[in-house]
Design a protein that fits this description.
6-stranded mixed β-sheet, 11 helices, 2 domains, L-amino peptidase D-ALA esterase/amidase, single chain, alpha+beta, globular
């Protein structure tokens, strides 16, 4: 029997055992908004990370890999900043990341390796270490939901709104909560997770089990988001488990399945929020693929369609150009027979083994809502997959033509 998941209020602080705070370190010019966030667990927690596949990885990503290897998957805190990616900064960038986590460790009285860093912003810019360290040393920590929302807002760059989610499930008679926050609007085509995300749970679970549970979920949620086709140097997803829900550690079976269900709900929700808030976006694109050879093929085809700039531009103009959808699926690497392929835009069947009679005006109308649904059946098997994207507007070009200036 599958677990029943209920939506919960709050975000990263919804599970028990976590506090957060935020402050301004003045990283972003001409802005006094908070740009540093700290998420703290009351006692050392299980920690796993899914980090960028980009070989030009930022300093905080490099430091995180070393820290998690040193602790064997334990952490007390995550420190995040916006306004500076600390990427492409060489040895000085690594030292800057270490100084920041050292400041947090000094405040918490823990080992520096138990503090995991994350940064987002302009590549190549230097992190103002002293100001960031001063900000994390002086900020107030709270377990109030408002503190979690403030932390989610502090890590925004070109995002227009904070992204939070939480869900609750009962495991062996005990409620277990999963919560999270994320940021991401541009440079989103992840090769691991999203640009920056922190997901927490009060479940008792060891690192190996948590990674095994989360890995497939990351693949079908965060890794299925595409705003612009660019994988960031800083993509980071951290998962922390406080164990405050009580009971013995979750290892396998129904308990692990229940945790996975709640985690999937939170990650799916955050992924959709990221797609909807893509830079310059006016519509979210939801692509569903069925009839694939397997789920891997289905996800590949869905991601290719959601990530196609031609499909994105067509959605922006409400142009029901099924040919662009077919072409994107055809280059995805998924097994596809044109004679068996079917494509729907909204509820309008536009292609069924060939062009089929349909009402173009109805298909165009289906592309004018806040969410545009595109569905394909590849006719090759039982595989299913979903991906999320957004339309491509002139505003996206405007934002990214002057990002560094």
């Amino acid at each position: 029997m599958s677990a029943v998941v209920e939506r919960a209020s709050g975000g990263v602080l919804a599970p028990r055992g976590f506090r957060a705070g935020s402050a301004s370190a003045g990283i972003r010019e001409h802005s006094s908004a908070d740009d540093v966030a700290l998420v703290v667990v009351d006692a050392a927690a299980t920690a796993v990370a899914f980090l960028t596949a980009n070989r030009f990885a930022a300093a905080p990503v490099q430091v995180a890999r070393l820290s998690l290897a040193e602790t064997g998957g334990r952490a007390r805190a995550i420190v995040l900043n916006a306004g500076c990616a600390n990427a492409g900064t060489g040895p000085a960038g690594l030292e800057a990341a270490r100084q920041v986590i050292g400041a947090v460790a000094g405040r918490l009285g823990c080992h520096p390796a138990e503090v995991l860093p994350a940064s987002t912003g302009l590549i190549g810019s230097a992190l103002p270490t002293e100001r960031v360290a001063g900000a994390v040393a002086g900020l107030s920590l709270s377990d109030a939901p408002e503190a979690g929302t403030a932390a989610a807002r502090a890590i925004m760059t070109t995002d227009t709104r904070p992204k939070e989610s939480a869900a609750r499930v009962v495991v062996d008679g005990r409620p277990i909560t999963v919560g999270g926050m994320a940021k991401g609007a541009g440079m989103i085509h992840p090769g691991m997770a999203t640009m920056l995300a922190v997901v927490t749970t009060d479940a008792a679970v060891e690192a190996g089990t948590l990674r095994a549970v989360a890995g497939p979920i990351v693949e079908r949620t965060f890794n299925q988001v595409s705003v612009d086709g660019d994988t960031s140097t800083n993509d980071t997803l951290y998962l922390l488990a406080s164990g405050r829900a009580g009971g013995g550690p979750i290892t396998a079976g129904d308990a692990a399945d229940a945790l996975a269900t709640a985690l999937d709900a939170v990650c799916t929700d955050l992924a959709r929020q990221i797609a909807a808030d893509g830079e310059g976006a006016t519509r979210r694109i939801d692509v569903t693929v069925s009839g694939a050879r397997d789920d891997t093929d289905a996800r590949a085809a869905a991601r290719a369609v959601a990530g196609s700039n031609l499909v994105k531009a067509a959605v922006h103009g409400a142009d029901p150009n099924w040919g662009r959808i077919a072409a994107a699926a055809g280059r995805s690497g998924a097994l596809l027979d044109p004679d068996l392929l079917r494509i729907w835009i909204g509820e309008v069947l536009t292609y069924a083994g060939g062009p089929c009679a349909h009402d173009p005006a109805a298909a165009s109308a289906a592309m004018r809502g806040d969410v545009v649904a595109i569905r394909l059946d590849l006719g090759a098997g039982d595989g299913i997959g979903v991906a999320w994207g957004c339309d491509l507007s002139a505003e996206y070009v405007a934002i990214n033509s002057e990002y560094a200036t």
